[in-house]
Design goal:
Layout (H helix, E strand, L loop, with lengths): L5 H16 L3 H25 L3 H10 L6 H16 L13 H12 L9 H12 L9 H8 L10 H17 L4 H16 L2
Helix pairs in contact: 1-7, 1-8, 2-3, 2-6, 2-9, 3-5, 3-6, 4-5, 7-9, 8-9
Length: 196
């Protein structure tokens, strides 16, 4: 999926409306809180270890594959603590793949950064680390909401990613929401409504 047609964008817009309109009050509240809570965690680690919040968000992102959120956060604290104590990646255990643990260490040390080449990951880092309203984390659940069906993890082209981001930002601003709040509300609603 490289570039979306006007018809596809209209369909995606209707589907996003569907999940937003079907969100319960609790799902809306949960979606509005999600990124703020994640950012507070980044701020906490940032203050303890004197590193930028975007670096913390990068570590969280690196540790996320096949990792539950609670474990992901625990692992992020563990990586920064290990580096502070002079430990190497192989000296600690985390709940994701070894390659991701080594990547997290490199990000935590400031030797590696997540760039715009990885649009979803970069957007996640900007959203979680800085509450940046110019980016939208178009993850598999946002794509499932756009398609209104349980699609497998799917790569999308840069242009399509930008189109979905622009669409999401416009919809959020019309509702008086921050784009990351709207995306999180849709994510919660889609996750709950597509798996029932």
């Amino acid at each position: 999926m490289k570039k979306l047609t006007a018809n596809q964008l209209r369909t995606f817009s209707r589907n996003l409306d569907y999940f937003f309109n079907n969100a319960t009050d609790e799902e809306i509240a949960q979606g509005k809180r999600w990124y703020k809570t994640a950012n507070e965690i980044c701020e906490d680690i940032s203050n303890i270890y004197r590193v930028p919040t975007t670096r913390v968000a990068g570590v969280i992102s690196a540790l996320s594959p096949r990792n539950k959120w609670e474990k992901n956060i625990k692992d992020a604290y563990a990586v920064f603590a290990a580096i502070n104590e002079g430990l190497q990646p192989e000296e600690i255990k985390v709940s994701t793949f070894h390659t991701n643990k080594f990547k997290a260490f490199e990000i935590a040390k400031g030797n590696k950064t997540i760039t715009w080449d990885s649009q979803k990951t970069f957007s996640f880092v900007r959203n979680v680390g800085e509450l940046d309203e110019n980016f939208v984390t178009v993850d598999v659940w946002h794509l499932r909401a756009c398609f209104k069906k349980l699609i497998p993890s799917q790569a999308i082209g840069r242009i399509a990613y930008d189109q979905i981001t622009d669409l999401t930002i416009k919809k959020a601003l019309k509702l008086g929401l921050k784009p990351y709040e709207y995306q999180a509300i849709v994510w919660v609603s889609c996750r709950n409504n597509l798996t029932r």
